[in-house]
Structure formats: C-alpha cells, structure tokens
Amino acid sequence: MSTFVLMAGGTGGHLFPALALAQELNRRGHDIHLITDKRVAQHGGSFPAREVHQVPAATPSIRNPVKFVRAGFTILSGISRAMGILRRIDPDAVVGFGGYPCFPPFLAAAMLGIPGILHEQNAVMGRANRALARFADTLAMSFAETQHADRYRLKKVLTGNPVRDRVRTAADTPYLPIEPGGVIRLLIFGGSQGARAFADLVPDAIAAIDEPLRRHLAVTQQCREEDLERVTDRYRAARVNVELAAFFEDLPERIAASHLVIGRAGASTVAELTVLGRPAILVPLPGSLDQDQRANAAFVEKAGGAWLVDQATLSPQSLATQLHELLTAPGRLAETAAKAKSIGIPDAVSRLADLAEQTARGNP
Which of 102, 108, 150, 271 has the greatest count of CB atoms below 10 A from its CB? Predict the structure, then answer.
C-alpha cells in the first residue's frame, strides 16, 4: 500500500477528476489525502480521503502591487504549512490537478523530494500548471493536443480526464435515436457561471420552434435558484414539457438519456459527454483569459462530436433554427453521438492510477 496526496483547487473542475482518482486508488488499497482550499466545502464534503487539509493560497496579480505582495506572503505561508503536512504524512507521491491552491503544496512536495504528477484537464495548459510543470516528474494530459505544453513533450503522458464512477456506469447506456413521432429529450446545463445565459436564451429559442416539433420535446434544464420561477413561466407559456432544478444529482444518467445536450465546454463536461457519447451544442464560457473552454469545444467539434457556438453570436432565433435542423435529423445526431464517444477515454482514471503507482517512491 502506498500513500498519495492529491492537490486541487476547490472548484468542481479540479475536484471531480481528483475525486475519480481517489475512488480508484482507494479500490486498489492505497491511502489518500487531499490538500485544497476552503471552497472544498461546496464540492468535496464527501471526498474519499483519510484527511482533507486546507492550505492558504492566492492568485498573484501583477497589475496591483499591493495584492501581488499580499499574495506572495499568502503563498509563502501556504508552502510552509504544506511542508509541515507533507512531512507528517510522508507520501509516496503527489498528484496535482491545477488551480492556484495547488501551487503551494506541489512546490512544497518538490522541495521535499517527493515525486509528483501534474494533471491538466483542459486543452490549454492552466497558468498554475505552467508555473509548476518544471517541478513535476510527469504531466498527465487530457487532450492529445494541449496549448503551452509542447516544451514539456518529454514529460507528457496522455491519460484523459478521469470521470466519476457513476459516469462510467452510465456509459454502458446506448444512444437511442429519435423515433418518428416519439419524445425528444433535450438537456441544458451550464454550471453556476453559465446557467444564467442559458436561462435567458434557451426558453425563448424553444418557444420559437414550430409547434408540431415543440410538442414532442421533453426539456430538462439546470437553472440558478433565482431564475427558476421566470424560466418556468416562459416554458409554461410555450406549452413545453419541462423539468427544472438548480442542481441534478443524477446528471450523468440524464445526459445518457438525452438526444441532445446544450452546455458549456468545461473540462469535466467535455470528458463526460465524450465518455457517454452524446451530441452537444457547446457554448464556451466567454471572458476566460486563456479561452480554455473554447479550445476544449474546438477539439470535440473537429472530431465531429459537437457543434461549437460562441455566445456572442447566439440569439434565441439562431438557436431555434439550429435546434430545428438537428432535432429533425435523427441520423445526424446519432452519427455525432458515435463520433463523440470515439474520442472519449473511459479508462482515464485507470491510466492515471497506473501512472501514480509507477511514480510512487519504492515502486520496483
């Protein structure tokens, strides 16, 4: 048995693959610890680790000298605290999943001579991972092509992005094409940052679809709590069969039951869509400095597994037109579903766990 410390920023995009790896390493009999930040309470309350440790971290801002200095002191404090934690745990290897909360503990591990793997979830290497890459033994990549990672080609290994156990289970559900006159299942979700735009756009787009097609729709949409009432009213006025909620615990199963998904292009979303093999209209979250979601969506679109639509060009009418074209072409949707599944890496968690075991100290 080995001891592994996983390190991740406290958002779902970083914690979900860490969670998947923790589940797999636990199954293999290893001991797991997690180092993260205070946001873990939102996503990691049931994280399968012996202990969850919170370490101070900060995002440096060169535009604001005062904040930059403060961030520097916070990072130094985080490194010092992480070194104390790591000395006590004495792990055989660490695995970092990105985000600035990963920076202090991963750097501390390198200073202590503990072998380390950095996992990159997106098709653009994150800034924290770029800063830490020189200290990593191996870079585990989710995409065959990742921007800013070429200089580390000797360290790169393609593992894919681990998905949760329930996603892998749902992946056994075959894609069932739309039947003539049958129910058409449309799923819309956007995460906390993306749901508002979809609440504004999608109901009006669906209301603009011709009534003969609209009456066959069964729409499931994730909305922010404050938007639920107005979105419900809009769908009721359009006489659309809809189920709305602020959060769906069984989202993997709902994706698997869908004929078409409208969603953002975060790393976990893209990984789950391709493992499950479902066609999607991907609308990258605008405003990101690195445009990582756009790169993720472009990768899937290039493979024929999705349609990339920029939010700036999206309107209810343009979305209604696209939905009509797709939902009346069941063969095209089924073909796109197959292409999405062809680029999914369902065994990503096994690949990453194998790599962690090979990296661990004492491994023969």
Answer: 102
